[in-house]
Specification:
Blueprint: E1 2-8, H1 15-30, E2 37-40, E3 59-64, H2 70-84, E4 87-92, E5 95-99, H3 104-116
Antiparallel strand pairs: 1-3, 1-4, 2-3, 4-5
Helix pairs in contact: 2-3
Length: 122
């Protein structure tokens, strides 16, 4: 299963800041046993999430996981965004979800609904 992750920039961030977050996310993802591959995804999509200044302001990461690992990956993202204070947009088949700034219970409910929308056969 392929996921596209985008670390959304905070206002006023420089390219070096974005590169740092992209590198950190990739390193942290590769530490997970369930992640088969994680790398920068330059020019993955021409669509820029709302509120972004341009493609150079984004840290895009392409992740490959077994379908059965989707739940574990979104739990990792929930924890990662909580620890870093970053916003991450995850997308499967052009169905995005933004993760940040909600209680654990709220995030868990939204993520459970999003996961249910993507059966393991994807």
């Amino acid at each position: 299963m392929e996921l596209r992750l985008t670390v959304l920039p905070d206002s006023g961030e420089e390219e070096a800041d974005i590169a740092f977050w992209s590198t950190r996310l990739i390193k942290d993802l590769l530490d997970l046993d369930s992640v088969m591959a994680a790398d920068r995804a330059d020019n993955v999509s021409t669509e820029i999430p709302g509120g972004s200044k341009g493609a150079g302001d984004l840290a895009r990461v392409l992740v490959e996981i077994p379908s059965a690992a989707l739940s574990a990956l979104v739990q990792f993202l929930r924890t990662w965004t909580s620890l870093t204070g970053r916003t991450v947009e995850a997308s499967i088949d052009n169905d995005p979800i933004r993760i940040r700034g909600a209680s654990k219970q709220q995030v868990d409910q939204v993520l459970a609904a999003w996961i249910a929308h993507h059966p393991s056969s994807t």
